[in-house]
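USER:
Working in pairs, take the chain set out below, taking as long as you need, and write a paragraph about the fold.
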Amino acid sequence: MSTEIIAFTPDYESAPPFQCQTSIAEGLITLSLTWNMAAERWYMRVQNSSGDTWLYRPLIGSPMTNDINLISTISTSKIVYRADNSAFEITL
C-alpha cells in the first residue's frame, strides 16, 4: 500500500483554482476543486482520463485521528483531505 501526498494550494487566478492528476486503483484521474460561493465551501470533481465525471461532492476535511474516504463510492483506493495540513492523501 503506497500513499501519495498532494498539497492543496489553490491559485485564485486559474480556472479551476486547483487541479491535479493522480492514480487510483481504477486508473489515472483528475481532481479539480472549485469554490462555491453560495455554499461557501470547496467542491471536488473527480474525472477519469477520458474526462468523464465520476464524482462531484463537497470537500470534507478529515481530522488527524480519523479518515473520511472521499471516493469510497467509486474506488477501492482512498483519498483523504487533511484540513489541518491542507493536503490530500491518496492511498492505493
Q: What stands out?
A: The two ends are 6 Å apart (CA to CA). The mean pLDDT is 96. The chain has no helices and seven strands. Residues 62 and 82 are 5 Å apart (CA to CA).
